[in-house]
Write a structure and sequence with these properties.
This protein is mainly alpha-helical and about 325 residues long. It has helices spanning about 1-20, 30-55, 70-100, 105-135, 140-155, 170-180, 200-225, 230-245, 245-255, 265-280, 290-315, and strands at about 190-195, 195-200.
């Protein structure tokens, strides 16, 4: 429990520093600042793999899967990279939500910050539930595997010109029925008083839709990580470390998303591979280096083809 409490306390400190010190005053995140914070979060997450090594070496957490320290480190890094890869699709949707509700860049970080808080809570619950199911019912891993392959096929067949409209979503329509909504922005407030009535601003609407969107994406990413390991600490820590870097990565990639159109197919390959790995997990044990290789090669190929196509169009 000491390790779990220490990790959660560390996350709280990170979030407090983020909002209370580094981003105390709302401002537009520049590409330079986003690049710096993306590098910091990725480096921190990868360095944490060394902490994972020592935690498992000294037996500071319940080693439910009897993992060696090296294997635990590899599973953490693999889980982190899978979550980071699947977050790319999430970034596309967040960009559409901000554009749809005309959220100024100066307030986007605040919305994402509170979105991350909600994501951590929801994902913790989903991870505990997912681990419980896998431990309790062995056959559930086949269900997760088939679901991931189905998601990959659905993503592959999705047309590029299909645009997600947050205003037509069930969540948006439901919020409007529960609480009055205004199109006006008043500083960084989620609610304002208008004619003695409390009304929600576009910031609040964007936040709620982002929260629900993250839950939907978690239905893909959490089973994907559970394919790598069912160890609760490894699943939780790799997932949360990836989520913490999502904000800076959003600002880093938001302006370049259209350049990397082939990353969609990288995600298809990763989801398909992980789904197959889950289905075969009781019969064939795939080494972690293979998972890392597939993830790295898929992302690398997606980026290379995207840049090659862009260069060809320019010439």
């Amino acid at each position: 429990m000491i390790v779990w409490i220490s990790f959660i306390a560390l996350i709280v400190v990170f979030l407090a520093l983020d909002l209370g010190v580094f981003n105390k005053n709302p401002h537009e995140i520049t590409n330079k600042e986003a690049s710096m914070w993306t590098a910091i979060w990725v480096s921190t997450a990868l360095l944490f793999s060394l902490v994972v090594f020592f935690i498992f070496k000294h037996g500071w957490v319940d080693n439910v899967d009897n993992l060696t320290p090296t294997k635990a480190l590899m599973k953490y890094v693999t889980g982190y990279l899978i979550e980071l890869s699947l977050s790319i699709d999430n970034i596309f949707v967040i960009a559409v939500i901000f554009t749809s509700f005309k959220i100024p860049k100066i307030f986007q970080h605040r919305v994402l910050f509170w979105g991350i808080i909600g994501a951590i809570v929801f994902r913790a619950l989903m991870i505990l539930f997912g681990v419980f199911l896998i431990k309790k019912f062995d056959w559930i891993i086949y269900v997760f595997g088939v679901f991931l392959i189905y998601t990959a096929i659905k993503l592959a067949l999705e047309k590029d010109d299909e645009h997600y409209d947050p205003r037509s979503s069930f969540v948006y329509k439901t919020i409007r029925k529960i609480i009055p909504v205004t199109t006006e922005l008043n500083s960084e407030h989620f609610f304002i008083r208008k004619k003695h009535m409390l009304v929600a601003t576009p910031l609040f609407i964007a936040l709620i839709i982002i929260e629900f969107t993250d839950i939907l994406f978690a239905l893909d990413s959490i089973p994907a990580i559970l394919a790598i390991t069912s160890d609760p600490f490894l699943v939780f820590s790799s997932n949360i470390m990836a989520i913490l870097g999502l904000r800076s990565m959003y600002f880093f990639l938001a302006n370049m998303l259209e350049r990397f159109g082939y990353l969609k197919y990288s995600l298809v390959v990763i989801l398909t591979f992980v789904g197959i790995k889950m289905i075969l997990s009781h019969h064939i044990e795939m080494p972690e280096w293979l998972s890392l290789s597939v993830i790295g090669a898929s992302l690398g190929a997606g980026i290379w083809f995207s840049l090659y196509k862009e260069k060809k169009q320019v010439s």
